[in-house]
Every structure is written in structure tokens, then in C-alpha cells.
Write a structure and sequence with these properties.
- This protein has 259 residues and is an alpha+beta fold.
- It has two domains: 4-106, Winged helix-like DNA-binding domain superfamily/Winged helix DNA-binding domain (Arc Repressor Mutant, subunit A, Orthogonal Bundle); 110-254, 2-Layer Sandwich (Endonuclease, Chain A).
- Helix content is 53%, strand content 18%.
- It is built from eleven helices and nine strands.
- It has helices spanning 4-17, 22-34, 39-46, 50-62, 83-106, 108-114, 130-143, 154-161, 163-176, 188-195, 240-254, and strands at residues 66-68, 78-80, 123-128, 147-152, 179-184, 202-206, 216-220, 223-228, 233-238.
- Strands 3-9-8-7-4-5-6 form a seven-stranded mixed β-sheet, with helices on both faces. A two-stranded antiparallel ribbon has the order 1-2.
- Helix 2 crosses helix 4 and helix 7 runs parallel beside helix 9.
- The longest helix is centred in the middle third of the chain and has 24 residues, at 83-106.
Length: 259
């Protein structure tokens, strides 16, 4: 069971999350403790003037968190709504944020399409560590519109993130309706992916090279990620000219890949 101090902190944080001011929070928590009271009594407890108390009360009333009793004006008592009302408002805000989150996520490709790099400097970010590596991997699904291109050693990539994580990512990608073109170096993992192309919205080709390598790169939206799984390292580059160059390289090799 939470202590009284912890309960007060929960109420304070909840009201702050709803956008209440410090004075509104103080008045709400005071009224919870003392119950219905006159404005004079509240002003005395808070050590503020009656006009200022009325201003704070107006703020709470506008949020549906307080009201006066229905007695005559000068004998009315002020009281706050039950914490159930506070919980209702928190849930409504959460539902609104979830709808906005879904809207932004679903329209991320279009929003990114509105973003023009123009004369802005090239953006290059170095990502280190498995957690950040995976976070960047899932970011692709949020931002890509139709198709992503992957080129390199999937054996080393999946060997680092695990097949369980790869399958989880594939499910989310399919749910989003995103296809992927995979140009892979020969390996058992490459063959396994290729065998499920038709079910997993993917087209895989195998590229035989004289000198195999363990890195890879992935194109999506107006960005490219260079994956270096041995060091848990990824480089995210946002530059239209670099992306155009790597996309040209990808599709040049794509034509020579084994179907």
C-alpha cells in the first residue's frame, strides 16, 4: 500500500500531467483534505487573497475538477470533484495521445516527404550498442512508405540481432504493408529468408562476390543505414546525394543477383 506522501505525489504528478498550475494543484489537494469549504477558509489555508482564490477556482472549474454548492452566493461552499474525475481526464488524454501517435506513425512517410533537406547540412548519426541498434532497425518501419532495400551479409546481421528479433520485425513490416528488396551474400540465413519471400512481402536475390564482407546497408525514405554488427555500430546518414548514389549501386548489383 502506498504511503500518504506517495499518494500525494501521485496526485501532484497526475494533475501536473493534465496541465494544472502549481496554485491549482495546491487548491485541489487542499480541498481533498479539508472537504467543502468557504472561499475565506481556503484563502486562509493557502495564505492568499480571496480574489486570487477565485481565479484559481475558475481554472479548476474550467477543467471540470471543481464546483460550488448550489446555495446562495455568499454562503456557498467550494469543493473539488472526486479523484475519479481526475482519472477520467487522464484516460481521455491518454486516448487522445494514442490516436495522435497512430496518426503520426501511419502518415510518417508523407510527413517526411514534406520535409525538404534543401540547404541544410548533411545529417550523420553514429549509433552504438544493441538497444540503439534495434531501435534504429524498428525506426525503418515507422518511416518507410513502400519499399526498403537491404544489401549485404544477412548472416552477420541476424547473427547479431537474433532470428527472434528478425521475425518480430518482419511481422511489423508486413502489418505496415512495407515490402523489402534484399540483395544478400550467400549463406544459410539468406536461403532461409529467400524460401519465405512470397509469404513475407520480400524479394530476395543472392549476390556472389569474390571477397565476402560482414557489413550491410539499408535504404529507406531519404536515409541510409550502414550496419556494422560486429561492433554493434550503425551509421545513419540523411543526405539525398549519398542515398541516390547507394540506391544506384544497389540496383546495378540487383540486376546481376541470382534470382
Amino acid at each position: 500500500m502506498e504511503s500518504q506522501k506517495e499518494v500525494k505525489n501521485i496526485v501532484y504528478d497526475s494533475l501536473k500531467e493534465l496541465g494544472l498550475t502549481r496554485h491549482e494543484i495546491n487548491l485541489y489537494t487542499l480541498s481533498l483534505a479539508i472537504g467543502p469549504a468557504s472561499v475565506s477558509k481556503i484563502a486562509q489555508h493557502l495564505n492568499v487573497s480571496r480574489p486570487n482564490v477565485y481565479k484559481v477556482i475558475t481554472g479548476l472549474e474550467s477543467r471540470g475538477l471543481a464546483h460550488f454548492s448550489k446555495r446562495r452566493r455568499f454562503s456557498r461552499s467550494f469543493m473539488v470533484e472526486s479523484p475519479c474525475k481526475m482519472l477520467e481526464l487522464l484516460r481521455k488524454k491518454r486516448e487522445l495521445l494514442e490516436r495522435l501517435d497512430q496518426g503520426v506513425t501511419q502518415n510518417m512517410p508523407q510527413l517526411l516527404g514534406l520535409f525538404k533537406q534543401g540547404s541544410l547540412p548533411t545529417s550523420i548519426k553514429v549509433i552504438e550498442g544493441r538497444d540503439q541498434f534495434l531501435k534504429l532497425f524498428y525506426q525503418i518501419i515507422d518511416e518507410v512508405k513502400d519499399v526498403s532495400e537491404f544489401f549485404g551479409s544477412v548472416k552477420d546481421f541476424i547473427g547479431f540481432i537474433s532470428w527472434a528479433e528478425e521475425r518480430r520485425w518482419i511481422k511489423q513490416r508486413i502489418r505496415k504493408g512495407v515490402t523489402i528488396k534484399a540483395l544478400l551474400l550467400p549463406s544459410k540465413d539468406s536461403n532461409e529468408l529467400k524460401s519465405t519471400d512470397s509469404q513475407e512481402m520480400r524479394e530476395t536475390r543472392i549476390l556472389h562476390v569474390k571477397t565476402p564482407f560482414l557489413t550491410s546497408f539499408q535504404l529507406f525514405s531519404n536515409k541510409v543505414i550502414i550496419w556494422q554488427p560486429k561492433a554493434a555500430l550503425a551509421i545513419l546518414i540523411e543526405d539525398q546525394y549519398i542515398v541516390a548514389m547507394l540506391k544506384s549501386i544497389f540496383y546495378t548489383f540487383w540486376q546481376t543477383g541470382e534470382v
